[in-house]
């Protein structure tokens, strides 16, 4: 399999990111803000405890349409 689209929730995304199974992210930025302690995130669940262990991505493309910004991020090379 060369490509797999995953449209799960934060727990599934978090688990895939932690286990290095994500090489590309498609994120949309909208001009709407909500939050709070119980607000969902892109990577819920166990999390990554140290910044040094964070998974890094680089911007591959960006498109502005109306009030939204559509971005594609690719996994950065490990240093």
Helix and strand arrangement:
Elements: H1 10-18, E1 24-29, E2 57-65, E3 68-75
Antiparallel strand pairs: 1-3, 2-3
- CA radius of gyration is 14 Å
Helix content: 10-25%
Give the number of helices: 1
Structural class comes to mainly beta
What is the H/E string?
HEEE
> Largest sheet, order of strands side by side?
1-3-2
Number of strands: 3
Question: What is the 3D form?
Answer: globular
The CA-CA distance between the termini, in Å, is 27 Å
Which runs of at least 5 residues are low in confidence (pLDDT < 50)?
A: none
> Which percent range describes the beta-strand content?
25-35%
Mean pLDDT: 88
For the largest beta-sheet, the strand count, sense and barrel status come to: 3 strands, antiparallel
Describe the overall structure:
With 79 residues, the chain is mainly β. It is built from 1 helix and 3 strands, in the order αβββ. The protein has one helix at 10-18, and strands at residues 24-29, 57-65, 68-75. Strands 1-3-2 form a 3-stranded antiparallel β-sheet, with no helix packed on it. The longest helix is centred in the first third of the chain and has 9 residues, at 10-18.
